[in-house]
Amino acid sequence: MESKLKRTYAGIPMEYATSEKSKVVLIPVAYDGTSTWGKGADKGPGAFLEASENMELYDIETKSEVYRKGIYLTETLEDYGSPNEMVVSVHNIVKEYIARKKMVTLIGGEHSISIGSIRAFNESYQDLTVLQIDAHADLRKEYNGSRYNHACALYEASQNTNLVQVGIRSMDHSETLVMNPDNVFFAHDMVSDDFWMDNVIELMTDNVYITFDLDAFDPSILPSTGTPEPGGLLWYETLEFLKRVFGECNVVGFDIVELCPNRHDKSSDFLAAKLYYKMLGYKYCQKPEVEDDGDFSEMKEQFKKEGYISEDYDR
Question: Which of 116, 129, 131, 175 could pair with 87 in a Cys bridge, judged by C-beta atoms 3.0 to 4.6 Å apart?
């Protein structure tokens, strides 16, 4: 049993934060071992958690408080001697919580943390789609002498899963030899394509893992990332897309990576915190979850409580 003094996600009450009862597990991975320009992604999980503690936990859009499903915050993974050691560690802990039937989520950290997580999900779910929302292709087989560099974050997924890439606007020529062009949605095409969301979803299999690199957003709304690129996604179009993905597919887990906090501006930290909470809301609160026990009266009362039908429904 967790100590009452243990930090909880967003400061939620311990009754919603135990590993035994929580539906969701959040794993912070404070790793920034291979980034080559803007350093500081290892500080991302701490900034994310601090912002989360200052966030309202009632979501207006879904009329819900998704934390009541239970969100267990693990100890932060950190202090790795090598990229390989980090990937193995992440893989092992993710695999452990998948086996315990949890919705496993991660906050990074640089994008290489996703390698171990995706590997664990691919071993656990058949016909997995990896939905990469990102400015960069991250498809290099090796970079700076390592297969576990942040520039290689999706190479393994490109070989072993149904990888769908959204928002790409920066890549090396060598990555064109690996990339599946039918599964890539470049930012410059998306801006004039009214149907890109439909087209992305058509490529999905039933089980989907989302890896969300925060540099997918335009720097005008999220500047605090290691490699910001102009021409990115904006807030409401991103939420519209995610709502559809969670509503139409079985999202089995996700990560959010590449937050590099800036002590002079907390807005990026808060956006990351809000994004995580919205994604959980879309997973669990888009429609009522009701146990099918054959008693419509209980279902009706839950619908009233959640605001889907009015209190005078029976009148």
Answer: 116
